[in-house]
Amino acid sequence: MAPEQKIWFITGCSTGFGRALAQQVLAAGHRAVVTARDTAQVQDIVEGHDNALALALDVTDPEQVRTAVAAAEQYFGGIDVLVNNAGIGYFAAVEESTDEEIRRIFEINVFGLSDVIRAVLPGMRERRTGTIVNFSSIGGLRAFPAVGYYAATKFAVEGLTDALRQEVAPLGITTLLVEPGPFRTDWAGRSADETLPEREIADYADTAGAQRAAFRAETGKEPGDPAAAARAIITALAGDTHPQRLLLGAPAYSMAIEQLETMLAEARAHEALSKSADFDAPAA
C-alpha cells in the first residue's frame, strides 16, 4: 500500500454524503470500509474494487458496531480515517415532537456516533495515528424552526468533538467537524417523509410549519453537490495538517459568518453585565 493511501471507515453509505464520500475515496485510490444497514444498497460501490469492503452496520446496535470495527481492522490491518456520517433528520416544532422520535434521533445522531468512536479509538491509540471525521451541520452552529431536536443532536456532536480533539491530540489523533449547508442528499425529501410530526399545531404554522414547507420545496434544488463535498473533505485531509471545522457550501459559509458576528456583537453589547456576575465586580 502506497504511503499516501488511507483506510477509511465510513458509516451511512447507502445514500447522500456517505455514498458520495465512499465513491470519491475509492476513486482517489484509498481503501474503504463501506457500511450500511443493508449491504445490498452499497454493493454497486464496492463491486470491482479489491480495496473496498462492504459491512452491515446499524450504529444503534452496539454489538454490530464492535463486530464491524473488528472485521475492518482484521481485513485491512487498521483504520486511518473514521467518518461518522450516519444520521437522520426530524421535522417538527419542539412542542410537536414525540418522545419516541426525539430519542430515536439522539440514538442515531449522537449515541451511535459515540459508540463508533469508542470502538475505533483503541486501534488508533495503539498506532498513535488516525483521524475522526464527524458530520455536524450548519445546524450545529445555528438552529432553525422545525428542526430543533436535529440541531440539538448536531450541537451535541460539536461539543463532543471539541472535547475529543483536545483529548486525543497528544496521541497523534486528529478530528474534523464537517458542517454542510443545503445539499442534494434528499435530507428533506424521503427522510422528511419518514419523520413528519404526528400532529401539527396551528400556532406554529408561521414558524415551524413554514420552515418545514421551505425545506420540502427546496428538495432536489439545493446548491450543494455531494460529490464536490466529498472531494473537499478528501482534500482537507490530504495535507500534514487540516482544519478543525470545514463548512461546506456557500450558504453554510454565509450563515456561519452571520451567526458568529451576531453572537460576538451581542456578547460585546452586554460585556459589563456579564462581568458583573464575578465576586468583587462592579455593578453593571
TrEMBL record:
Source domain of life is Bacteria
**CDD domains per the UniProt record, alphabetical:** 17beta-HSD-like_SDR_c
Record's signal peptide: none
Tell me the GO molecular function terms.
Answer: oxidoreductase activity
Domain Ketoreductase spans what residues? 6-190
Against InterPro entries, the record matches this protein to: KR_dom (IPR057326), NAD(P)-bd_dom_sf (IPR036291), Sc_DH/Rdtase_CS (IPR020904), SDR_fam (IPR002347), SDR_oxidoreductase (IPR051911)
Q: Which keywords, in A-to-Z order, does the entry hold?
A: Oxidoreductase
Q: Which SMART domains match?
A: PKS_KR (SM00822)
Q: Which Pfam families match?
A: adh_short (PF00106)
According to its UniProt record, which protein family does this protein belong to? Belongs to the short-chain dehydrogenases/reductases (SDR) family.
Give the protein's recorded name.
Short-chain dehydrogenase/reductase
Q: Which organism is it from?
A: Streptomyces griseoviridis
